[in-house]
Hints:
By secondary structure, the chain is α+β, with helices and mostly antiparallel strands. The chain has helices at residues 2-11, 16-33, 64-72, 96-108, 134-147, 170-177, 204-214, 257-262, 269-274, 286-308, 315-327, 356-363, 389-399, 472-479, 505-515; strands spanning 40-43, 52-56, 77-83, 88-93, 112-113, 116-117, 119-122, 125-129, 156-162, 183-191, 194-201, 218-220, 223-230, 245-247, 343-347, 369-374, 382-386, 403-404, 407-408, 410-413, 432-434, 460-464, 485-490, 498-502, 527-530. A hairpin with a 7-residue loop joins strand 23 and strand 24. One of its GO terms (biological process) is regulation of RNA splicing. Keywords: Phosphoprotein, Repeat, RNA-binding.
Amino acid sequence: SYVEMIVMEMLSSSSGSKRINEDLACFTSGSINNGAKKIRTDRINSDQVSKVIHIRSLPSDVSEQEVIQLGLSFGKVTNLLMLKGKNQAFLEMENSEVAREMVNECAISPPTIRQRVLYVQYSNHKELKTDSSPNQVKAQAVLQAMQQTEGGPNHVLRVVVENMLYPITLDVLHTIFTKFGVVLKTITFTKNNQFQALLQMGDAIQSQTAKLSLDGQNIYNGCCTLRIEYSKLPALNVKYNNDKSRDYTRNDLPSGESSILNNPPSSLQSILSSSAGLMPTPYSNNAAASIAAALQQSQLNTLSNAVSSRSAINNAAVAAQLANLINSGGSTSSSMPSSGTSVLHVSNLNEDMISPQILFTLFGVYGDVIRVKIMFQRKSNALIQMNDNTQAHVAMKHLHGVKLFGNSLQVVTSKHSQVQMPREGQDIGNLTQDFSNSPLHRFKKPGSKNFQNIYPPSEVLHLSNIPNDVTEEFLKDSFAAFGKVHGFKFFAKDRKMALIQMSTVEEAVKSLVMMHNFRLSDTNHLRVSFSKSQI
């Protein structure tokens, strides 16, 4: 039989037990877990480096997104095989060099998912050949979406819920629409006193199937009627993973508690009033934690009411959500940011232009950068350690996808808890630098106005610390070296500050990293940040 053949072959090799486990896992997944065809792989000798990575000791509830994100931290992932029943997965990387870096890095600092240490090693197979079972189709759709989420015509559905007598959550929508394809992103909102949602499906066919099947249907008996049409948007841009929006292809997005603090539900007024002494800034967690707990209790109450209602025809789905909340102790990742790491992994950097100082300057707009390490073998990748995990989330939120020197930055949280300094004499290219004592930190002073002036990258830059003898022409000429200057004006009441507008956000980002701390006189260095104002 196939199993006996594998066992006999493996016992005769030097890596017997490993290959037996791996091949049996693949065989079991293909013939039982995935319900149809076998998952076939082409084996290689155990002493060779493979571009296929074998990951063990995964949590039983691990998602495809979490496994893919682990690989994307090192490079492009071309294939995925999930063996959830065995707490294992296989990732096929773009090439063996990417796989080598991943295995070497994970050997030094093993990654974790939900505090569970993972074991990462080369697979004994040179490539993955997955079948067309539903599980594999889903995995491929998620993999494609996480690496290219541009979307297209009719990928996004606009859903209006009429006669909504029972609460509709993101999880309820996700449960309903995943029956017709892969839900990549969801945004919910209220317009004209109606609950509405935008859902981006895996492709236009999935969207069409969901629309034809669900339009006009009731979620519950006689109420919560779905009205579905195609959105004009080709794709959704989700900034936060919380109870209002979710990007299922990215688990690294912040929860955006600041929006809750600015527009608190009436049921949370007492919580807010009792926390009046707390500053509702991106750098304050205590108030957000209290609000998150209240939101969890509110969810438990509303879901409990829905389950107890005999008119609900979809009680199973709602009950499952209630059970999940109860089992998790009223704690979910969508309500507040995890305590997580303060280290960010940045990829797709321009190797010819990047330096630790440039990364320190750019990420320093959103927090105090402690250390920067550019990878020696892959200089398009870097690790950036912020002062704390909150600053890391703020920087990731604003800089992921931003273009720097022609490349769109890919910013995710790192598996590392800190950036290690190299031993003396090892860092030949001076690629790792410690900025702990830098005088250019923007947030080291408690109560600094910089905490209140954190804005996303924009064409308009705020300039400060300008000497009286520096002219508009000089500043415009200096910035023109990095792009086209569209506008400039000094502040009327304070000539030490000015606004300058570049033609694009990319040019503004480049100007900031090149001109921040530019020497204007013996005692004045230019300070540059992004502005929310317009000229």
